[in-house]
Amino acid sequence: MTVLTLEELAASTPLGTPWLGLDLGEKTIGVAASDATRMIASPLVLIRKTKFTQDAEAVLKLMDGRKASGLVIGLPLNMDGSEGPRAQSCRAFARNLQRLRAVPVAFQDERLSTSAVERFLIEELDLNRKRRANVVDRTAAAWILQGALDRLRG
């Protein structure tokens, strides 16, 4: 299976099924889930990265448990729109995941998502550094997924 556009993801997944959003960091994977109507994304869990196979199994288990039909993965593009090593790593994760299971995947530009979430957590919620560390990646995943859902609605 190849990577899809958001429009292709929407067309190829059953209505009434949620999607998961992933923020692939160096040490963690932030996971968010949409509701079944794909209107609202909410932070879900944080997966501490170990080995790819275990990380992928954790993501697939979450998909099964939520009956999610697709994945939106944040793609960390450079500010000029080019792809660096982190973006290539995200593409490799998607390719390898699809070798384990034919999961519909689309990418969403995630430039500045983590910094926007950090700013929100500091300014609006007044969270200290330790509390932010526990929520920033899964909140960034929700930000990424919500951006994709909003983009599809126009």
TrEMBL record:
<dbReference type="GO" id="GO:0004518">
    <property type="term" value="F:nuclease activity"/>
</dbReference>
<keyword id="KW-0540">Nuclease</keyword>
<protein>
    <recommendedName>
        <fullName>Putative pre-16S rRNA nuclease</fullName>
        <ecNumber>3.1.-.-</ecNumber>
    </recommendedName>
</protein>
<comment type="similarity">
    <text>Belongs to the YqgF HJR family.</text>
</comment>
<dbReference type="GO" id="GO:0005829">
    <property type="term" value="C:cytosol"/>
</dbReference>
<feature type="domain" description="YqgF/RNase H-like">
    <location>
        <begin position="17"/>
        <end position="117"/>
    </location>
</feature>
<dbReference type="InterPro" id="IPR005227">
    <property type="entry name" value="YqgF"/>
</dbReference>
<dbReference type="Pfam" id="PF03652">
    <property type="entry name" value="RuvX"/>
</dbReference>
<keyword id="KW-0378">Hydrolase</keyword>
<keyword id="KW-0963">Cytoplasm</keyword>
<keyword id="KW-0690">Ribosome biogenesis</keyword>
<dbReference type="InterPro" id="IPR037027">
    <property type="entry name" value="YqgF/RNaseH-like_dom_sf"/>
</dbReference>
<dbReference type="InterPro" id="IPR006641">
    <property type="entry name" value="YqgF/RNaseH-like_dom"/>
</dbReference>
<dbReference type="InterPro" id="IPR012337">
    <property type="entry name" value="RNaseH-like_sf"/>
</dbReference>
<comment type="function">
    <text>Could be a nuclease involved in processing of the 5'-end of pre-16S rRNA.</text>
</comment>
<dbReference type="GO" id="GO:0000967">
    <property type="term" value="P:rRNA 5'-end processing"/>
</dbReference>
<dbReference type="GO" id="GO:0016788">
    <property type="term" value="F:hydrolase activity, acting on ester bonds"/>
</dbReference>
